[in-house]
Amino acid sequence: MSGPQPGSHKRTITVHELLERSARAALDLQREDGSFPPGQNGVYDEPETPVRTTSHWLTTLSKVYALTGERVFADAASDAADYLLGDDARPHGNTFYSRTVADKDACDGVIGQAAPIRGLSLAGRILDREELYKTAEEVFFLHPFDRRLGLWERVEIDGERLSFDRTVNHQLTFAAAGAELLRSVETVRDPLETFLDQLEKNMTQRKNGVIRHYINPPVSKVIRTVLGQPRHWPLLWNILAFGYHSFSEERRRKEIGYLPVVVSSLARLHREFPDHELWQRGSIDTAVEYLTSRDSDGAYRIRTAASGSMLPGIEAGYGLFVFGYMDPCRDLIAADISEHFDAERGLLDRNATDPISQSSKIYNLALFPDPQFTIRL
Length: 377
Description:
This protein has helices spanning about 15-25, 50-70, 70-85, 110-125, 130-140, 170-180, 190-200, 220-230, 235-245, 250-270, 285-290, 300-305, 310-320, 325-340, 355-360, 365, and strands at about 10-15, 145, 150-155, 160-165, 375. The chain is mainly α and about 375 residues long.
């Protein structure tokens, strides 16, 4: 196995090397049923099922198998995929059972579905198992998509429709998972393109480029939607809360913390839709540039935010790579590795509120366009 070993003096590492080391360490974490230990959703301290971490490791194991050709990774990935196809992961044959929190949806909005859709899509292609990406397609289309609004609804694990997911990074993460599915299934192209067509109407930015936390569709569309289907009344809450959150310093910090999630999802969509006119309008550029501007100190702020991405340097680095900011990309990824990578264990679980979830988030590098990309440590 390649890569720097504990105690070595090597000061660079490639994405490939880091992925391989973590994937080997993950083999010892996998349970007999193919699942991985569940996390607690970071600082939110909410008990999760194994679905999310298993989906993340499925992504990484599949990619490392593609890079190395070693059967041990294919077998582990297949076992993880089989768990996600089973009744524990989808107890009612509808959406994935993502969390076990009283008084909250068990599906965890659309973001709770994004990880298994993405993992099964990638694994199905690499392992040549059509049933994996077909399951991802099925679950993707269980979520009603409103073409006029350009938003997806949440669907509970028993099939109940719960109205729209009102969080911008949730909608973007779900769309980015659909972009991974698009590589195998053409049927998702139309809703993804419509989502991008409507995105600027649904999101709001602060003056510094940071994207606001909640969706903000046009008021006329919201009123028409609620009058037509009263179960969508939570959309009205966004209108009422928008002004208050505009002046909340706590909300500003939260939005900065989630900017890496937003930018990385936008980058994944950009890779599949490089010619979409959204990228020419400038709004996305201002969000990306916040991460690189010395005036905003964005690179520091995303890494010190109390909530948001668990690996902000790696997630933001992915976006910066795709959008052409190579040096800041390397710096941000290197900062995360230096702070969180345990060379003895081979996992990104140091200095973590939720080490189980954080270590699984290395999947972000499994999606990195260049596995030989070198990071200076």
